[in-house]
Write a structure and sequence with these properties.
This protein is α/β, with parallel strands linked by helices. Helix content is about 30%, strand content about 25%. Strand 2 (about 25-35) and strand 3 form a beta hairpin.
């Protein structure tokens, strides 16, 4: 994959070496911070410090669920303490097999709107085929204002009609997808490409 590379991690990725990750050509790391109303990733804070020390850009994502939006938002903000220096992301995807456990389209819009209002920073939405599942194939006007981090493990992203282009494209989950699936310092992981070079990624990082 051309262009600047980003990876996304969670506690499931054991013992990342951020110095090696940066030396391997990765520019940024987006790490899971919270999920729903109760879960906070115990690795988040220490890894943020280590990644920044290694010269990497940092980001935080919240995995949305069907739980109360305001409670989820409070959990995310309280965990990551947004200060305008790192990207904020809502992970909008299917959560298990019970529909009520997954965040709805209305909840996602509410979360993004309130997150921006409370932090003064426009967040990013991470999504993929789940958006088509819940919204169909037509553009979703309420989401079009947000940059999209699109998930599709294929040679091309095939974006939802809501966006003319992606900000990030997650092209591999470490097993599926084309091109590079493993990074020195962490091994197989979610790999993402930015639609531009490193300088442009750094300029666009916090929105």
């Amino acid at each position: 994959m051309p262009n600047a590379m980003v990876i996304d991690l969670s506690h499931h990725n054991a013992n990342p070496d951020f110095t090696k990750i940066r030396a391997a050509g990765v520019v940024g790391v987006i790490h899971k911070a919270t999920q729903g109303t109760g879960f906070a990733d115990a690795q988040y804070a220490a890894r943020k410090t280590a990644a920044l020390q290694a010269g990497l850009l940092w980001g935080a994502y919240h995995f949305g669920t069907g739980d109360d939006v305001d409670t989820q938002l409070a959990k995310f903000i309280g965990t990551v303490n947004p200060d305008g220096t790192f990207v904020l992301v809502l992970d909008f995807e299917k959560n298990g097999t019970t529909p009520a456990n997954s965040m709805s389209l209305d909840q996602a819009t509410d979360f993004l709107t309130k997150l921006e209002a409370q932090t003064g920073q426009q967040p990013v939405i991470y999504t993929g085929s789940y958006l088509t599942d819940v919204a169909g194939s037509q553009p979703v006007a309420d989401l079009a204002q947000y940059r999209v981090w699109w998930a599709r493990y294929s040679d091309t992203p095939h974006l939802h009609a809501t966006w003319p282009d992606y900000w990030l494209w997650q092209y591999s989950d470490g097993t599926n997808g084309p091109d590079q699936k493993s990074v020195d310092g962490v091994g197989p992981c979610d790999c993402d490409t930015f639609n531009g070079d490193e300088a442009a990624l750094r300029a666009s990082w916090v929105g």
